[in-house]
Amino acid sequence: MENIVSLCKRRGFIFQSSEIYGGLNGFWDYGPLGAELKRCLKDFWWRRNVREREDMVGMDGAIIMNRAVWRASGHEETFSDPMVDCKTCKGRFRADQLDATPCRQKPSLTVAACPGEKTEPRAFNLMFKSYAGPIESDENLVYLRPETAQAIFVQFRNIYDTSRMKLPFGIAQIGKAFRNEINPRNYTFRSREFEQMEIEYFCRAEDGLRLTDEWLEHRLRFYEDIGIPRSKIRVHEIPESERAFYSKKTYDLEYEFPFGVSELEGIAYRTDYDLSRHIQHSGKPLEIFDEASRQKFVPHVVEPSAGVDRTVLALICEAYDEEEVPGEGGKTEMRTVLRFHPRMAPVKAAVFPLLKNKPELVAEARRLAANLRPHFSIAYDESGAIGRRYRRQDEAGTPFGITIDFDTLGENGPATKGTVTLRHRDSMTQERLPIKDVLPWLQQAVF
Ligand code: GAP
Asked: Does 191 contact ligand 1 (Cβ within 6 A)?
């Protein structure tokens, strides 16, 4: 994990938020490569779950909503962790983690073992508070949303009425969520600001259990399609005794991170709980009318809810590799390579002129890079030995390197004129490709 964190900083994937001021615990910034990686993930999730499906539509809700939403959802009352205060060090700790949390004054001891006097556990709500308007009154109190899902429930009726969707159908959303986690940890895994990719799939009661299993399969296939094999994901069915009382089935999808097996996504069959609560609290008719039985009913819902940041971290962990390769002068050297699925790679291809002091090579390489840029994220690099330039791209996870060389210019005869060297990141093998085929070749390789 240390090597991964160091690579992420060195290559500009992830930085500590506000780093020059000492950072802020639980907040992270994504640098150029991290931002591209995140975008590839979110775009592909949207494509698979919204654009490729007839039964799904998307939405983009506000982060701040009427406080009544969080009363209805139960978050205001129950979205909390039990906390204990230490009267000696004035620290506040999660009551269920006292055995695993180091004491602030004597880190060799756990909080449980430290002799400081502790309070009884008290509920600490995880929602960040703010005020909408200039007066900091109870009336103006608002929360930063702790999940994106509620915006979908409260807009269910509007979307149903305007989109002409019929059950079963889903509403998808990607967006920021905020939780004042007591103990942010494991790098970006548990943050205070993060992004979720959530689906609420509305259906009839009799279809809920079956659709939950179908979503499980669909979501496992998604992870495979971004380069996380099924063998690295554990499906944990939550037993009834640990499930929310309204849920009839819940799966956690867990990934084998270097720091342990931990949750990537939850798939919960939430019955009609959420819409019923909003009907109760808002007094608005969110039921739909069943033509066949001529009766109104509240749709049930299956919720696949995934974290962007956790999936990005899993993608980086899965891609990270170090291997011995032949180096200069017959010696071997270590190469660090991120073996991202081409679909997820932050930079899809790097274009290199073989030599930077040969203007025809530079001009041809720049022309190719400019032609590719409207279609993908492309790197252009002309400095240093070509081997070193390949290594730099290996570390960034760029799957393909395209070199403009003397063959391209036709200096070695007509047979190879107008062709480029295409170098594959994983195998380090090279082949020649006509320059006019580079764009369509890349398009199919990264789709
Ligand atoms: N609407 C359901 C819901 O929010 P959740 O299990 O609390 O369920 C869903 O969150 C997903 O959001 C998690 O599986 C995880 O990927 C991500 N997530 C939750 N809390 C997080 C945190 N503090 N940091 C990063 N990701 C988080």
From this structure: yes
Whether ligand 1 lies within 6 angstroms of the CB of 250 is answered as no
Question: Would the CB of 305 count as within 6 Å of ligand 1?
Answer: yes
Token representation of residue 167: 């059950």
Ligand 1 atom closest to the Cα of residue 190 is 24
C-alpha distances out from residue 53 to 49, 85, 197, 234, Å: 6, 50, 16, 26
Atom of ligand 1 nearest to the CA of 268: 2
Pocket test for ligand 1, best of 196, 262, 263 (most atoms within 8 A of CB): 196
Quick check: bond before 168 cis, omega within 30?
Answer: yes
Question: Within its chain, how far is the Cα of 249 from the centroid?
Answer: 24
CA distance 107 to 105: 6
Does ligand 1 lie within 6 Å of residue 266's CB atom?
A: yes
* pTM of structure: 0.94
Cα(352)–Cα(382) distance, rounded to whole angstroms?
6
Which residues, including other chains, have CB under 8 Å from residue 364's CB and lie 6 or more apart?
Answer: 353, 404, 408, 409, 435
Q: Which atom of ligand 1 lies at the shortest distance from residue 194's CA?
A: 25
DSSP single-letter state for residue 299: P
Instruction: List pLDDT tens digits, range 14-43.
Output: 999 999 999 999 999 999 999 999 999 999
CA separation for the pair 124, 105 (Å, rounded): 23
Summarize pLDDT for 181-221 with one digit per residue, the tens.
Answer: 988 989 999 999 999 999 999 999 999 999 999 999 999 99
**What CA–CA distance (Å, rounded) separates 292 from 99?**
57
Nearest residue to 349 via CA among 383, 392, 386, 393: 393
Q: How far is the CA of 358 from the centre of ligand 1 (A)?
A: 52
